[in-house]
Amino acid sequence: MVKIRAYIGEATEYDKKETLEERRPKSWLKSVSAFANGNGGVLLFGIADDDALKGLPDVKTASEKISEAVKSKMDPIPSIELQIRQEEGKDFILLHVAPGAETPYYYIGDGGRIAYIRVGNESVQATATDLKRLVLRGSNSTYDSLPMLYRFENFAFTKLRSVYRQRTGLELDAQDFVSFGLVDEKGFLTHAGALLADESPMRFSRLFCTRWNGLDKASGVMEALDDKEFSGSLIALLQGGEEFVRNNTKKRWKKTDTGRTEMPDYPERAVLECLVNALIHRDYMITGSEVHIDIFDDRMEIYSPGGMMDGSLVQDLNTDTVPSKRRNPVIADVFSRMNYMERRGSGFKKIKADYHRAVNFREALEPQFYSDRTNFIVTLFNLNYGVAVEKNIPPEKKQSFDEPETILEERKQSFMHLLKGLGFKPKTAAHVLALYQHYGTQQCFTRSDVAEALNVTTAPATVLMRRMKEASLIEIANGKSRGAYRFKQMEP
User: Fold this and answer.
1) Mean pLDDT score of the chain
2) Cα(430)–Cα(456) distance, rounded to whole angstroms?
3) In the predicted model, is pLDDT for residue 402 greater than 50?
4) CATH class of the domain comprising 4-138
5) 489-492: Cβ within 8 A, 24+ apart
6) pLDDT digits (tens, 9 = 90+) for 218-269
7) Angle 147-153-159 (CA atoms, 0-180°, nearest 5)?
8) What is the CATH number of domain 245-381?
């Protein structure tokens, strides 16, 4: 038998009352309502706020009054179990409340009808959105499975079909949309289907991305270096978010005995996992907010509307053991089929594991998770922030056996003289020289290649490529991918 003291401290699932407040039943029945509307819990009578074991003077009478109050002031009546326990020569009552299947469970009294939910260690009044969520749960439904008034044939799913084909090798047909839960049997889109349509009618489903200048949102110089807003299909939001992060973060590398080791600012898989989770698990019943990606010099914050499903606070939990719960199971299933996420297991462990494998990881850079009633925020720290740069530009081409060092140096000086004559500043000229020595006149490169090679974002890489085109140093690489260039044949 579990000792009473073993319950104390488990604030989310247990509450305690020193006495049975007969004239103020709301003071403890709100916890009964919250437990029934959540994951269940136990109410301990006879324990003070400071955890002192006070006991009750007449547990038999108190038990009868508790049972009567639950039956007369709760609607519907939750499933409860009363236990009388004795410890340290004192009597206690344990009121076990089971998770309810007929949510919401209301407290009726004081001229009102109020449902409560559990948030952390508190029982708080449910909002209108909370009530909608409880009604769905009581009807064994989820928001993303509910049908809408939009016909399937009036919407295109080009991005979903394309990505599904790319990642699975299979084609999506009309029947798949029904079996996946994106379309009902009458041909109407569900909320999940509407969220995955190319031109999604869910206008509040958007992604805001900002690269801030400095360590906060008010640097006093130029607040935002880059910002983008994405709307439409969840697939478009995911792709847009990935691209924004790539364009606004850097990837270093260092030489090793066997080649080179890449050192990105943020582990790519961890970023993808966070972004997927933010889009899939957000609370789409909260219509006044969107998913946000905020990139600062030292960190990235990914915000998603909606806290933990059970009202717990993620910062108070062991993220290695948090079970996977899906607020939007239809959407989650589609993304699982496309191998964006696992059907089982917690994403928290995957995110942390990706960081632990990184070259520059240290304990202070452990990813952080925060939630409250309506918000969920993941903070990923920049692995390269404050770390000395070992090498930021590509290595020079290896010296040929028939080209002495003096000749190579002369060519470098000649090239730098040419660049100076074209109006290139020393730093910019050095970057051009490094690229020329690395790629030569045969190898092609894109804007992304330049950004990665020089350890800069795409914005300065774009400016540099434009300068090189204007100076007739580079030309379009015909027959190659779009945006590919090569250096012109020349002997500076």
Assistant:
1) 87
2) 14
3) no
4) alpha beta
5) 489/441, 490/441, 492/411, 492/414, 492/415, 492/417, 492/418
6) 654 457 889 999 999 999 999 999 999 999 999 887 776 666 788 899 999 9
7) 90
8) 3.30.565.60
Please state, as a whole number, how many other Cβ atoms lie within 10 Å of the Cβ of residue 49.
8
Q: Give the pLDDT mean for 57-86.
A: 95
Residue 18 above 60 pLDDT?
yes
Residue 88 Rama label (left phi>0; alpha psi -120 to 50; beta): left
- Tens-place pLDDT, residues 421-451: 888 888 888 888 888 887 777 788 888 888 8
Cite the residue boundaries of each domain of the chain with CATH code 3.30.565.60: 245-381
As a residue count, the chain comes to 492
Q: CATH 1.10.10.10 spans which residues of the chain?
A: 405-487
- Written as six digits, the tokens of 63 are 């038990």
The CA distance from 466 to 110, in Å, is: 72
What architecture is domain 405-487? Answer: Orthogonal Bundle (1.10)
pLDDT range class, residue 159, cuts 50, 70, 90: very high
349 pLDDT exceeds 80? Answer: yes
pLDDT at 405 over 90: no
